[in-house]
Amino acid sequence: MVDKKYLTTKITKFLLLTVLILGAIETQAAGEEEKEIGLEKIIVTNRRAAIGLSEAAENVVVIDAEEIQRLPARDLGEALKYVAGIDLEPRQGFGRDTSVSIQGSDSRQVRVMIDGIPLNSQSSGQVNPAVFPIENIERIEVIKGASSSIWGSSLGGVVNVITKDTGTTLIPKGSLTTSFAEFRTRKQSAELSGKLDAFGYYLFSSYMESGGKGPKDDVLEKKGFGKLSYDLKEMGKITGSFGYSGADVNSGEYPRDAMYIWEAQPYRSRYGKIGWEGKLKGAEMKVDLKHYRQELATKSYNLLLDEAPSSRVEYKDLLYQLSLNSVLHLREKDLLVLGADFDCDTLKSTSLTKAKSLKLQAPYANYTLKLEPWDWNLGLRFDHNSEYGQETSPSLGGVYHLDNIPDTLIRAHISRAFNAPPLLWKYYERTALGWTADNPEIKPERAWVYELGLESRPIPQFWLKLSLYRADVADAISNARNAEGKWIKKNFKKFRRQGAELQFKLKLLEGLDFFASGAFNDIEDRATRKTVKGGGKARQSFDLGLEYKNKKGFSLSLLGYYHYWNEPGASEANDRKMLCDLKASQEFKNLSFFFNIYNLTNSKYWKDYYFPFPQRYFEGGVALKW
Length: 626
What we know:
By secondary structure, the protein is mainly beta. The chain has one domain: Maltoporin, Chain A, CATH 2.40.170.
C-alpha cells in the first residue's frame, strides 16, 4: 500500500516550493491573451483521417510543439513520462533504454510510430523512446487503449509522433541550440527549413555526449532527421522523410561490487518513408512506402577479466511496409476511411541460427457518422499474419455531447483487440547460451476492451477528464519456467486489466495553471486470482504541475510525478517518493535561455536496485532562432 502520510508530506512540500518560486516572479501578466482549456485540437491517429479531438470515442491525448517546448525533456521518452496514464521505467542516466506502458499494459502492447512508421521490433516487441529526438516533433498523439481496428497489433495503446512539416518561406528559417548539464554532459542541435518554388525542406541534427556518474557509464549519441516535399499542384504532393538515431551507451558498473559486471548497448536506427497524397474523384488518397531498420547489441563485460565481452547478443530488425489510405466525405460531415497495410518483417540475431521473417496483409475500414448530439464510429480490420494466423478486430464507439453543460461529453468504446508476440519468442534457438528458451506454441493475445469516459470544461478556467477501462485478455503472455527450468514466454488462460484515470486543470491566475492527475491499474491472473507483477507497470501513479507564462517571454514549469511500481520483492524497489523537475526559460525576439533542474527534491529512487535514478542535477542552455 502507498504510505499516505509520506505522500501527503511530499505533495505539501511540492506546493510550498511552487508558491515560493512563483512568489519571486510576476504573477499577473496584464493584457495577455491566454488559450482556454479546450477540446479543439485536430488528431489523425485514431481514424487515419483528420477529425476533432471532441469527436474521438477513444481516450486520446495530444501534446503539441508548444507544450513540448515547456517540458524539461531531451527525447521522446522524457516527454512521455509527464503524460497522465503513461508510465516509463526510470533508468540511471542519459540515453538509457526504457519502455512505455499505457494503462498498465506491457510495453510490447504499445504500438509506437513516427509519422505512421511502425517501430516495434521482432526481438522484444517494444520500442525504446529514448532513441528518438524531440526537437523535430510537431505533436504527439496518444491513444490510451486498444486500437486494433485501425493499427492491428496494439492491445495497450498507440503513440504516434507527427514530425514538423517542410518550410514555407524562400528565406530559410532555423535554430541553433546548445546546452550543458552535470556529469560532463553537453548537447548541440540545429534545425533548418524553407521552400524553393515547389520544393520544400526541413532538416534537423543533434549531438549529445555524457560522461555519466561513474566508471563505464557514458553515452555518445547522434541523431538526424530530414523531410522533403514537392508540390504537384492539382496532382497532389510527394513527401519523403528519413531519420537516423545512433548511440554508444555504456551502463556503468553494477551497484553490487561482487558482480564486477558492466554492459554496453550500442544501437543504430534508420527509418523513413516516401509517399504521395492528393485527391482522386473526390477522395483524399495517400500511398506510403515505409522502412525501418534497427541494429542493437548487448555486450557484457567482467571487470576481473580482459577487455573482450564475456557475452554478446545482436539483433537486426528490418521492416518494409506499403500503406494505402483513402478518405471519403459523405453527407458533408461523415467520413469513410478505407485502406490496407502490407508488411514484410525480417529478424536476424545471434540467438537464431538463421533469419526469420513474417508477412502481413491487413485491409481496414472505419466510418464516422455524425447524428447530433452523437458522433458514432464503426471500425473493422482484418489481419493475416504468416506466423500467427488471422485476426478480425471490430470496434464501436460513440460520443454524446451534452447541451446543458458547456464543452461536456461522454465517451464509450468497445473493441476486439489483439497483440502478436515478437518472432524471437517463438524461434529463440540458442537455448544453451542462457536461461531463456523458445516457445513454438506461443499464440497472440486476444481481448475484449471496454472504455468509458467523461470530459468537461463547465467554465473556461476549469477542465476535468475521467476515464475507466477494462481489458479481458485471453491467452495473455507472461514469464514462466519450462521443464528444464529455463524462462519462456507462455500463454495464460486469462488476465484482467482494469483501472481508472482522473485529470483536471485549473487556471489560477492569468498565465498560471495548476494541473493534477491520478491513475490506478490492476492486473489479475483470473485462474489464480493473484496480482500479476513485473514488466514495468505502475499500480498507482500521480502527477502534479504548475505552469506559468507571461507576455514578456518568461515561462516556468514545475512538474511532479509519483509511481508505485507493481514489482516483485526481488527488485528491491525504492519508489515511495515523488520526483520533481523544473524548467524556467526566457524568450527574446531571436534568442532564448533555459534552465532545468532534474530530481529537484534530490530523492534516492529506483524501481529496480540495479538501475538507480540520478539524484538532483542541473542543465542550462541557449537557443538562437531566425
